[in-house]
Design goal:
There is one protein chain. By secondary structure, the chain is α/β, with parallel strands linked by helices. It folds into three domains: 75 residues, Orthogonal Bundle (Arc Repressor Mutant, subunit A); 105 residues, Periplasmic binding protein-like II (D-Maltodextrin-Binding Protein, domain 2); 97 residues, Periplasmic binding protein-like II (D-Maltodextrin-Binding Protein, domain 2). Helices cover 36% and strands 21% of the residues. It contains ten helices and twelve strands. The strands form four sheets. It has a five-stranded mixed beta sheet, with helices on one face. Strands 10-7-11 form a three-stranded antiparallel beta sheet, with helices on one face. The chain has a two-stranded antiparallel ribbon with strand order 1-2. The N terminus is likely disordered.
Length: 312
């Protein structure tokens, strides 16, 4: 009569909970000791040992006198099972508090022109003080398409939420902004009140990424029975300001966002009623809980909350 068992029976799939039982059995060297550690009954622990034997194809612990001794396979497993459990616990444990000073990472931010010039110096200074191992990569924002956020090509974006912004994108308000007129030093509009009539009588440069020749300002002027002359259309604030700085053209730009681009120019409130715009910080929800990303978002928020220091 054969008394040996076949331990090679196939299982439907590994029960990873058995690793905890195996660790306790190998550590205690007895079913009773493992049962006490696991707070299980000896019979439940014995059944788990039987399942382990089936899974590994090895008896693992065999009787020697009144106790149990590990097989060579069990001794081999002892070296790895503890590390496996440690690694599994680390995966399921909440992320450790972030130490920015030890963070080594590159973050990509997408913005329209004006953000880097206005907020970049303070942001880079703050990052350098708190996390010298972090590098910021700024890339241009040609549109409001959320695909780069969605596919991980960029980490953060600033701007106004639009129809092309994906519904899943997270947003946090950075600041409220308004459009203002910008002219060169010495421009006729630099003295006296800027009325709607004086404003409309000038020659203007219109900013439109899509090449439109009409915008919200024109609609507001039309309600007052006025129309302005659009001398040229450009795709960026920096282009508009460059033209206005070198001529009598009038440019219209967001006051805070493009603040540094306007250094040396005269700014004035538009003589028509336009709604303020909300500039937001945008990111994909998969980055919500990432400690490094959360830290960077807070850095951007704090920098954008600082008072404006634009030179007149």
């Amino acid at each position: 009569m054969r008394t040996d068992r076949c331990y090679g029976r196939a299982m439907a799939g590994p029960d990873l909970n058995l690793l905890i039982t195996l660790d306790a059995l190998l550590g205690e060297g007895s079913v009773a000791g493992a049962a006490r550690r696991l707070r299980l009954s000896p019979s439940a622990t014995s059944r788990a040992l039987a399942r382990l034997r089936d899974a590994t194809g090895d008896p693992l612990l065999v009787r020697a006198g009144r106790g149990l001794v590990p097989t060579p396979r069990a001794l081999e497993l002892r070296r790895s099972v503890g590390q496996l459990l440690h690694d599994a616990e680390a995966v399921l444990r909440p992320a450790a508090p972030l130490d920015p000073g030890r963070l080594v990472r590159t973050f990509t931010l997408r913005n329209r022109e004006g953000f880097v010039e206005t907020f970049g110096p303070a942001l880079i200074s703050r990052i350098g003080e708190q996390a010298p191992g972090v590098r910021l990569r700024f890339v241009p924002k040609p549109d409001r398409d959320s695909a780069p956020l969605r596919d991980g090509g960029i980490d953060l974006e600033t701007g106004v939420i639009g129809d092309a912004t994906g519904p899943e994108i997270r947003a946090r308000t950075l600041f409220r902004d308004r459009f203002v007129g910008a002219v060169r030093a010495g421009h006729p509009l630099g003295t006296g009140p800027v009325t709607a009539q004086r404003y409309a009588a000038g020659r203007h440069v219109l900013v439109s990424r899509r090449g439109h020749e009409h915008g919200p300002i024109d609609e507001a002027l039309a309600t007052a029975g006025l129309a302005r002359t659009i001398a040229t259309v450009v795709s960026s604030f920096s282009e508009a300001l460059a033209l206005a700085r070198a001529s009598d053209l009038i440019a219209d730009v967001p006051e805070r966002y493009a603040g540094r681009l306007c250094d040396g120019m005269i700014l004035f409130g538009l003589p028509v009623s336009l709604p303020d715009i909300t500039v937001s910080l945008l990111w994909h929800p998969r980055m919500d809980a990432d400690p490094g990303h959360r830290w960077l978002r807070e850095c951007v928020r704090e920098v954008c909350a600082l008072p404006s220091t634009r030179s007149a």
